[in-house]
Amino acid sequence: MAGMPLNDMPWWRWRAHVRSALHMLSDPAFHQNYWLPGVPGYGDVTDAVYRLVEDTWLDNWSAEKYVGTVFRDSQEAALVDVAVLRVLRIMHQVGADAPVAAYLQHHGWPEAVRAAREAHVRLAAGDGDDPDTTPTSLDELAAAMHSV
Fold this sequence. Notes:
mainly alpha; 7 helices; 0% strand
């Protein structure tokens, strides 16, 4: 998220958290190289889901509520809604404390990853970022939150 214009959206910190979560959820290579082996500093699936919904309450209502504050337009919001629903459905089925492998082996995981990827690409493009970079660590995310 290095190129992201951090303060052009009113609730940019929420957007940064949602983007970070979607980025991690959308990258199968990241899952294999960071989450599965438990590389420190990147959390896990549960942590990413928490970042996705913690401030926004996207587990309770539509992202459409945040168009103009967190999301640039209805298309971004719609893609985020699909990703949230797919990931939450799996979380409820395998359990929030399940190991990463349980998520990756779930029959619905590829569809959740695809939905997260579509949302991630749209949000990254809206912020002028390359969607194909490796997700940043949680420490880098925290530093970005305090840099502005």
